[in-house]
Amino acid sequence: MYKVLIIDDEEPLREAISILGDWKGLQVSSVLEATNGKSGLEMIESHRPDLVVVDMKMPEMNGVEFLRVVEKQYPELLTIVISGYNDFEFTRQAIHSKVVDYLLKPINRQDLNQTLRKAIDLLEAKREIRQESITKNIAYNMSLPKLKEKIYFSIIEGSFKKGNNHAFLSLIGGDDPNHRFGALVLRVLNMEGIRDSRFNHDVELLYFAVENVINEMSGDGLQCFSFVNPKQEREIIAIYTISGGYPQDWTFRSEQLMKQVVSNLSKLFGILSAGGVGHPCSDPLELAHSYEAARLSVLEIDLLKMKGSGVIGTHEKLSVRDIHSLTSRMPIIRNALESGNLNHARTVLGEFARKVQSSDSFSLGDADRMIREVVVLFNDIALELGVPADSTPPSSGERALRALGVGTDFSTFEQFEHLLMKVLERYSTQIREKMAGNRPFSVDDIKEYIDNHYFEDIKISMFTEKYFLSREYLMKLFKQQFGFGIHEYVQKVRMDKAQKLLDDPGLKIQDISDMLGYKDKNYFSKAFRNYYSISPSEYRNQIIKDKK
Q1: Taking every annotated instance into account, which residue ranges of this chain make up the domain HTH araC/xylS-type (predicted)?
Q2: Which member of 73, 261, 469, 493 has the lowest number of beta carbons within 10 Å of its beta carbon?
Q3: H/E element, 311
């Protein structure tokens, strides 16, 4: 709807225009009146009409003076001139002021409404153009962050071509010689846990919160623009821009910024993060080097020294260190998984973890590499033992862990070891299910296993997991078949072996205890006495007497 102001010192003419105008058809909601140019300007200032119908000859301020003021102060305001004088001076000013039309008195209905319609059409056209411009500006402002993100990321990954895209550099301030650019890298260590506990399982909301914290750190000549790395999970990149100051201060200020970001994320949301700072550069096209330096400083953080809190990496590389690999232990783990002995596989993996933990250093980058290696090695074992290829996860780090249903968070070495154990258990389940489906169960298999592995720590859970049968059912079947419970039979086999080994005087009782899988000599002696009502030493002495 539109507002129209009629300015004329003659009330009959104002009334005539009010009566003759087709205001409803023209979508005019309000018709205002003023008696001269001066009061008309006051009405314009207070009511902001869209169209003014003005008489050229009036007291105090005539139409010519009025149009000159409007031309300067309200250049967008549309005007229609009405005059009873065929005067060239009035016509010249009307033309100069770009009025919509010039009407002579007396006014008739048709001429008036045709002129009014012409003005309203102009208003509607302007409104459409203005709305289109606003829409474009909104779209531009909404898309600008995405555009900046694409520019920065294309520079970081090396696909930005300066020759073809030079104009885009102005959007990131690249045309300002006083700007210095640098990259920050932030890795969220407890992403899954904090996503579920604080952000209602919404990772996008978590990322949004992190980006806001980073961007709000801007100030004092340092600005930040952050975004999620689309090719690296749990990594957020922040580009900082510094203007002013001295070169020796730039690195210090960016490092202080990173420390503050890590601290604030922990205080506000409980987010644990590892941060890295890239060196500042004068050319934005050198951001790829700054990003790589920041990323490497994160990967070089020593996991063995992390205590489950936020941490900032340095540009100092860790000392030369061992490259730990599980490859040499995989045959043992494979045999354990094939035979259904998950506990033995856990022991092997645990010993490997202890060796890693006792080393001088083990970085976040080492941990990432080990996750990839472990997935590849276990995939190979699973495929060799008949697990279908479509049941094994992709060999791509965190996506593989997620496909296995294993949490990917870790901010201490103990949590990392727990992650590896979970991977082992998931593959063990896949292999057990496949092997259990490939062969029918026979209780003889349990007896055969005990006969061949009596020196190991044998638990009934090994067989329940392997054959997917209940503990009670397995024990009942075994006793029906062999007349012994499973634990009783393990004890019988060990004691039978003990008798044979004691017949050899060259073997010490401690050696025999070790060969049978007992923890120590005293425990073996007690078990032997409970079974035969005589100690191993007494039994051996009795054999010697009998031989004499």
Answers
A1: 444-542
A2: 73
A3: strand 311-312
